[in-house]
Every structure is written in structure tokens, then in C-alpha cells.
Amino acid sequence: MKVSKIFVMTVMAAGLMVTSCGSSKPVTQTQQKQEYVKPIKLEKNEVIEYAEKKPALRAWAEAEDNKENRAIRRARNQANANFAEKIKKMVVSVLSEEDDVIEITGRNNGVESEANDGGTKFGGIAETISKATLRNVSDVKTERYWNDGKYKVYVCVEFLGNETQLADALVNNTVKEIQQNVPDSRREKLEQNMNKLRERFSSELEKLEE
What we know:
Number of domains: 1
Low-confidence stretches: 2-14, 16-24, 104-119
Distance between the termini: 88 Å
Shape: elongated
CATH class: Alpha Beta
Number of strands: 3
Helix content: 55-70%
């Protein structure tokens, strides 16, 4: 009788083990992705905090897409656009204060024509300079999050150099662009005032870091 009871209990225990093992669900692709990237959080993430530590040299952006590579590309492109816009505003500010020194005439491409650049004086030159500066900008930090079937990506881009090197690049790009729009008789004066332009750009960069 005791042997029979032991046999029944052994069979029941084996049945419970089979039921328990059979009830476990396989890991889904979504669960794997959630382990790969973090869930979306509301507070600042590392990318934003990193960008804000050096606002003169960095810019960030975010993008969302169901394709990871596409989300990364869109975020990177927008971060570059944000950095370029920052440079463009800086160039317009500097040239607006120094136009009496560099004596830009705007002949041939109408850089002084407010009608040609949306009402912003020097807007055309600033656009060209900002694009040239982007050649030395690269993405340096990326964070990816997965939520409701989509990737949300944050990207930070940074100028590959310090503030002094960025100021030098802005001066060189500015002079190169302006030389195409002034007569030969005034190019020498432009080159003589490169140091003053450098000081102005350095001052604007310092304001961004405050």
C-alpha cells in the first residue's frame, strides 16, 4: 500500500513539472529589443546632458521611427541642422556689427539685399559658412529607446576641436566667402581685420558657454 502511494505521488509530481515547463513562453522579438534598448524616459538623458555641457561646440536632436537606422539618420541630420543654425545666427550677428570694417558690397550675389535672403542681412553668406563648418562636425553620442513598436533616438554632434579652433574656422570660412564678393582693392583691408573678426567670434562662443 505504501509503495502504491509513493508511486501515485511520484506521477503527480512529474505531471506538475511537465505543466510548469510547458507553460513558459518563448522570448519574443519585442522583449529582446526592450533588453537591447532602454524604455523611453521623461527626464533628460545622457545625450542632452552631454550636449549642454559644451553648447558652443555641440548640438543634439531626437527622431522616432520604426526602423532603427532611419531614426538614427534623421536624428543625426537634425542635430547637424541645429548646429548649422547656431553658426548661421552667430555669423549674421558678427557681420552685422562688423560690416563697416570689412566693407562688403554684396555685388554679384546680392548679399546685402534683404529681399534675397528672407529679410536677414548676410543670410546667404552665413548659410554658406555654416555648411562649410559642418565638415568638421561629427556625431559623438547616441542613445536609443524602444517603445510601442518604434525606436526613439537621441544624437549629439560636436565640432572636432575646441572653441579657439572653431573661431579660427569661422574666420577662415568667412574671409574666404567674403573675398568672392568684394573688389580687389578691399581684400587687403579684409585680411587686416581677421584678428578683429576672430575676437568677435570668440566672444560669441563664450556667450554660448555661459
